[in-house]
Design brief:
The protein has eleven helices and 13 strands. Helix 1 packs across helix 2, helix 4 packs across helix 5 and helix 9 packs across helix 11. The chain is flat, with a radius of gyration of 21 Å.
């Protein structure tokens, strides 16, 4: 199609599902701090006045339920929940974590199971994607959806806008012409607010942040700008809706602009390829595009539980490639070890770097000096260019 619309949504760190993602990843970080080889699969559920953590763990150092409860409580405090029905001070927190299955462990650990090398923690398919629509090589609709909520969150956290509460959602529909985004067709923002804040005030507040984020001239028509469409958003967070870890996988990735293998990320240590291989696929796709080998790139990887090598690598450049796709696939295989252990070593994933990924997307972020978002680095560009000649 020469002209079309495409929509993506985002949710803030105060959304109930994101509260769960944050707690699960903060628990993971704590375990990795104590033991970089820890095995963690931590799920969290929240509702009014209640948090439950459940899953499987293995760690060289004993970590008490009290430690885990304190971590969860600190996450809730940092997000900003101190309201009737859900406050960091007195929310009930139930911890139901138990030891990892020995059947799974023997397939993942080196020297045991069918494959003597470290195997994948599960079977599955993972996708990575990159395109030239934004400076971070992310699709534009999810890029701007995240940016609007992050701008509102920064204002709330600074204390500049006390009327804002933690729970929020955004949705951006962009107009495309000949495959490139050219402006916003509609913008939807729902943000939790203090009871005494008028909807006119909230609308104008949100408008300021949308204008701040969108490129000049991209703002939608006034009748396509929707703020708190129900007319009120005072009851929010886990009081308004229950939350679960891993329920926002499209928000976490590409906003629907690329395929998703189905696996969630948060609360999983990097032996779980749902997480680490999805990061590797994004890393490869981003470097392919940055190297000038394609304008768009989708990577698929697949794995089998207990097997050390990927079952398949698929490259799709959507007709935008400057060299044959087969040559790109060969260059990728020659440039990076895509086994589970190879990915963990190359991207240095056995570190406490995950709580920060739990809101505003796992991709399209800036690499950080302590190794956070290492999969966003462009250090494979020269290698790939040399490989393709």
């Amino acid at each position: 199609m020469k002209e079309y619309l495409f929509t993506s949504e985002s949710v803030s760190e105060g959304h109930p599902d994101k509260v769960c993602d944050r707690i699960s990843d903060a628990v993971l970080d704590h375990f990795l701090t104590k033991d970089p080889e820890a095995r963690v699969a931590c799920e969290t559920a929240v509702t009014t006045d209640f948090v439950c953590l459940l899953g499987e763990i293995r760690c060289k150092e004993k970590i008490s339920n009290k430690d885990i409860q304190d971590i969860a409580r600190q996450c809730i405090k940092d997000i900003g929940y101190d309201q009737q029905g859900f406050s960091w001070k007195d929310v009930k927190i139930d911890v139901r974590l138990h030891d990892q299955s020995v059947d799974i462990a023997q397939g993942v650990d080196s020297g045991s199971g069918t494959d003597i090398l470290e195997g994948a923690g599960d079977q599955g398919i993972m996708f990575g994607y990159a395109c030239k629509e934004t400076p971070t090589l992310m699709p534009a609709p999810i890029y701007y959806s995240h940016a609007i909520l992050k701008s509102l969150s920064d204002a709330r956290r600074s204390g500049a806008v006390p009327a804002l509460e933690p729970d929020a959602k955004s949705q951006v529909t962009l107009k495309y012409y000949e495959g490139k985004p050219v402006g916003a067709q509609s913008v939807v923002v729902s943000t939790q607010h203090a009871e005494d804040a008028s909807q006119d005030y909230i609308r104008e507040l949100v408008r300021t942040h949308v204008h701040k984020v969108l490129p000049e001239g991209w703002m939608c028509e006034e009748d396509e700008f929707y703020v708190n469409p129900t007319g009120r958003f005072v009851i929010g967070g886990p009081v308004g809706d229950a939350g679960l870890t891993g329920r926002k996988i499209i928000v976490d990735t590409y906003g629907g602009a690329a395929p998703h293998g189905g696996g969630a990320f948060s609360g999983k240590d990097p032996t779980k390829v749902d997480r680490s291989a999805a990061y590797a696929a994004r890393y490869v796709a981003k470097n392919v595009v940055a190297a000038g080998l394609a304008e768009r790139c989708t990577i698929q990887l697949s794995y089998a539980i207990g097997i050390s090598k990927p079952i398949s690598l698929y490259v799709d450049t959507h007709g935008t490639n400057t060299v044959p796709e087969g040559k790109i696939a060969k260059a990728i295989n020659n440039s990076i070890d895509l086994s589970p252990s190879g990915i963990r070593k190359h991207l240095s994933l056995n570190r406490a770097i995950y709580a920060r990924t739990s809101a505003y997307g796992h991709f399209g972020r800036m690499p950080e000096t302590d190794g956070g978002f290492s999969w966003e680095s462009l250090d494979l560009v020269d290698v790939l260019q040399k490989e393709v000649g």
